[in-house]
């Protein structure tokens, strides 16, 4: 390809918002020459590469906006440490069929068993698949909604938790809520009902949610909407954090 034609293509690619193509057109033509590609094969190569670049850019941008505490995947989860947890149930969730159906997923169990890890891994998978995601602890969400309500901006702030395709609500039950706070949670749950997915983690069984939300009737209303379309996974094994802490203590004792 002549330098003049290459320059024209780079300029056109820039105007079309295809900076990667502008930078790599010479590489594409080299690969086409080496592979003796026909015209259609060459066009398919360029479009496929540009789509992959655009998807990766969208994925990385989605992760930046998600507020996820980390980007761990299911491959990094040690299922062998939780023998009572059936990996197939978690991997079924990772197909994202529940997200496609605007359903929910609940991960229940004591602290340290990896509930947040799985929730984040599912969110990362959803982001990779093109869904918008947002992560928050329940306490942070309630605090932000209360502040917005006091400032007369509740409707606007609710949008933060209603717009994403997948909302991850972490640590439900670590702090009991007042009734007014629980009502804010109810607004989020009810407005997302059958419109978007929620992935939540909780150290409380559903029978204890009346204590969490300070009102049995309100807790029942929340659960009614949340569990109507919901996959529930209970993890009742040992704590990863405690395991790691005990290993550290053992190493210190060995050194001593």
Automatic annotation (TrEMBL):
Residues 101-234 form the AAA+ ATPase domain. CDD domains: AAA (cd00009). The keyword ATP-binding applies. SUPFAM superfamilies: P-loop containing nucleoside triphosphate hydrolases. Keywords: ATP-binding, Nucleotide-binding. One of its GO terms (biological process) is DNA replication. It holds the Pfam family IstB_IS21. One of its GO terms (molecular function) is ATP binding. SMART domains: AAA (SM00382). The keyword Nucleotide-binding applies. Belongs to the IS21/IS1162 putative ATP-binding protein family. This is ISChy4, transposition helper protein. It comes from Streptomyces griseoflavus Tu4000.
